Amino acid sequence: MHTGPARAVGTPLTVLALVVAVFALVLGGAGAASAHAGLSGSDPADGAVLKAVPQYVTLTFTESVSFSDDSLRVLSPENERVNPRPARHVDGKDNTARVELSGKLPQGTYTVAWRVVSADGHPISGAFVFSNGKPSETAAVVATGSPDDTAVGRLYGVFRYVAYSGLALLVGAAAFVLVCWPAAATIRPVRRLLALGWVALAASTVALLLLRGPYETAGQLTSAFDPAQLGRTVTGRPGGALVVRLVLLAAAAVSLRWLARRTTDRTGLGARVRPAGALFASALAVTWAAAEHASAGIQVALAMPVAVLHLLAMGVWLGGLITLLLLLRRRGSDGQEIPASAIGRFSALAFGAVAVLVATGVYQSWRQVGSWEALSTTSYGKTLLVKIAAVVLVLWAASFSRRWTARLGHEATPATATATVTPAVSAPERVRVAQGVGAPTSATGQELGSAAEAPVGDGPGDTTEAPSFEADAYRRGLRRMVTVEAVLGVVVLVITTVLTGTQPSRAAGERVVTASAAEPQAQVVTVPFDMGTANHQGTVQITLTPGRVGENTVEAVVYTPDGGLATVPELRLTLTQDALGIGPLDAKLKNLKGYWAAYDLRLPMPGVWTLNITVRTTDIDQVTVRDTVRITSLPR
Description:
- By secondary structure, the chain is an alpha+beta fold.
- The chain has 13 helices and 20 strands.
- The strands form five sheets. Strands 2, 4, 5, 8 and 9 form a five-stranded mixed sheet that branches.
- A hairpin with a 5-residue loop joins strand 19 and strand 20.
- Helix 3 packs across helix 4 and helix 7 packs antiparallel against helix 12 (469-500).
């Protein structure tokens, strides 16, 4: 190997390039997160027209929610708030929210705007209307769009990516030092990598803590420094997890400073520090699991430790890869070039981490997706398929890395044995001695034997290493494949972060099932009518979907007496509710070449409605027939 002056080839540029790559992928992949819970019912129902003002407005969600003072607002037609007190849970049910209305309200249309935080820490929002007495125009203005499609939401998403990246760098670099090569703790690029991971994680955690309040309440960016709002944030579960994370990072900073002073005595240091390091990393991962998908849904007691293992395995593998890449790009004659045995130990560690990633990922996929069909029909499932493809590519790259590692280890083994037995007096320039910090620097060949006994790592094979052309070639090949593997690993990290902000398929399916069980899928009415000639009795079939209060789709088909499709010049449908004097509401059916349809018929209240169907069979003949249909409200 080269024995010229000590150099760190490309190390600063490599660190910069990796950081830029991470942020480029992060910013390029950032998108709006989907809702993680849903509104399953309300009282009054959306679009309902009531005879009297209700005392309360109650919302029911598919999972537990939390809310602030302004989470549920009822606005009058003049855009004035008519609920004087904040929302409360109903009878201790944490999936409900209820507000009490003012005593006497004028007639007109009222808007209910809500924004709550679902069990896994993500805000969801929406709005609907109901009318007192009769519908009216309204001046109420509510926010529309995704809660994450705001300046605060996008900034919060970016810092979530930075936090995951910092965790990977901190955990991965620390694991590499403690398990694979303790001597790496004295190498400047590794120290910088540890510092970079700590700073990224600490800074992003502070930013997330400040942004959490306006992120939950749709507030302005300037409200991030509101002491009252920050106080409410730290008492919630997501905010509390962020505070705990900051405490852990402060403890880590103190520990790292202590370790820096201990680097002059590295013998056995890794064995003593590993348990504490594993405990610290696990505690950090818990601050994510306690406020993300694992904390809500089914099998929470099992999902939490699985999520912790998944995060730790991700950090050990990806952060360790970046650490290895920096060390492989580093050359010098200071006795601190990474030995083949350390590369072999990381290869085994990375293999175990990837195995844990795959095993825990399979469980998490089953828990969040729920069915094979959901893989191709939901956003979460489609994103998961992309992640699986990226993981397959990572495993492919890792297989080549392991081959280069095996060749390098095979090449180094006989050379190490030779250098240990035979004094290298005649050619000192061809032997590199890996020494511990504080050991005497060999100036003559006679000192090489004693220097070779200085401990460098906790494992065998770290004493000496003879160079060869083949070893250099193997290192170059390994460096290339580790680079590919690290880049793919960053892609997997970005996709994983996107998944944490996407509604799980199982939750989406449960929401649909809940809504479907509480309301009919469609209302179908078949009405006979006289076609204008003797013994010619046709029928018209009206289908209203979903057949409840709010917006409905109407489809109408005319049949001949023998059951075939009939073509008629005109078909009209109006609906009335005679008991309350509502209507007629014109469905405004359009001829779609074979059937008639309308897609925006809005029914304001539940009950029995009369269908008035006018069929014109010729240019001068038409007939009007009637039937009734029962329209239901949303589940309460």
